[in-house]
Amino acid sequence: MLSNIRIVLVQTFHPGNIGASARAMKTMGLTRLTLVNPRRFPDDQASQLAAGADDVLANAHVVGSLAEAVDDCVQVIGASARLRNLPLPHFDEPDEMANAAMANAEQGPVALVFGRERFGLTNDEIRCCTHQVSIPANPDYGVLNLSQAVQVLSHEIFRAWRQLPGSDFQQATPRHASLPTQQQLTHFHDHLHRVMQGIGFLTQPHARTEDHLHALFARAQPTRKELSLLRGLLSAIEEKGEKSSEPENRS
Questions:
Q1: Were both Cys, which of 4, 86, 135, 227 would link to 105 (CB 3.0–4.6 Å)?
Q2: Boundaries of each tRNA/rRNA methyltransferase SpoU type domain copy (predicted)?
C-alpha cells in the first residue's frame, strides 16, 4: 500500500530540497513524488542531495497545479499549521494521520502535500485538501526544513505500514465503501455552487458559506454512493426550479 502514498511538493524554490525530500521518501519506502510548478527541475543540486534516490527523481511527475496533482486521490492531507479560518478536519498528531492514510490507501491514492519553503500552502491550496496535519515542535522555534517535514511524516507512514498486522492497526480498520476522488468531489462542489446560486441561497458573498460547507463534507467523508445520492438530490432541485420558472400554458 505504500505505492498508494503520494508526496506532493508545491512550488519548491530550492532544487536541493527536492533531492533531500526524495532521499527522505526512499528511506521510508515511498517512491511516488509529484512536483507542482517547481522553480528548477531537473537540476544537478536535486540529484546531488538525493544521495542515491535518483530513481525517485527520475519518476517524479511534474504538473501545473495542485488540483491536477490530487484529482484522483481519495484523501489529501496538507502539512501546515492549524488554520482556524478553514476548519478542515485536523490531525494534531502525525501518527493519527498515518493510521488514517494507510487505511484509506487500500482504496486509492492518498496525497501528503507540502507547501513552499517560505510560506507554505495558500488558503486556496488548503481548500484542495480533505485534511490538515501539523508536526508538534518547540513552540519557541517550530521551524522545520521542507525535507525534514517530509522525513517526519514519511516515517509515520512507514511506521503505520509496518504495524498493519498488529493490534494497533485494528483500530483503524479501512472502510468497505469506496471513497470518491478529489475530481469527483470538485464536480460535486461545483454542482452545489450552481444550485445554491440558482435558488438564491448565496446572497451574502462574504459569509464564507461555501467554505463551511466544504469543511462539513470533508469531515463527513461521504462515500461514492453517498456522493452520487447528493448529486441526484441537487439535480432534482435543479429540475424542480426549471419547471417552476416555465410560463404557464394558458388556453
A1: 4
A2: 5-153
| Mean pLDDT, residues 24-52 taken together | 96
- CATH 1.10.8.590 residue spans of the chain: 182-244
Residue partners of 201: CB distance under 8 A and separation at least 6: 195, 209
Class of 182-244 in CATH = mainly alpha
| Residue 161 predicted with pLDDT over 60 | yes
In the beta sheet, which residues pair with residue 36?
Answer: 10, 63
Q: How far apart are CA 250 and CA 1, in angstroms?
A: 64
Q: Indicate the CATH number of 2-170 among 3.40.1280.10, 3.40.250.10, 3.40.50.300, 3.10.129.10.
A: 3.40.1280.10
In sign, the C-alpha dihedral spanning 53, 63, 120, 152 is negative
pLDDT, position 167: 32
- Enumerate the CATH 3.40.1280.10 domain ranges in the chain, comma separated: 2-170
User: In which element (H, E) is residue 45 found?
Assistant: helix 44-50
pLDDT band at 248 (very low <50, low <70, confident <90, very high): low
Do the Cβ atoms of 66 and 128 come closer than 8 Å? yes
Per-residue pLDDT band at 196 (split at 50, 70, 90): confident
Mean pLDDT value of segment 79-85:
71
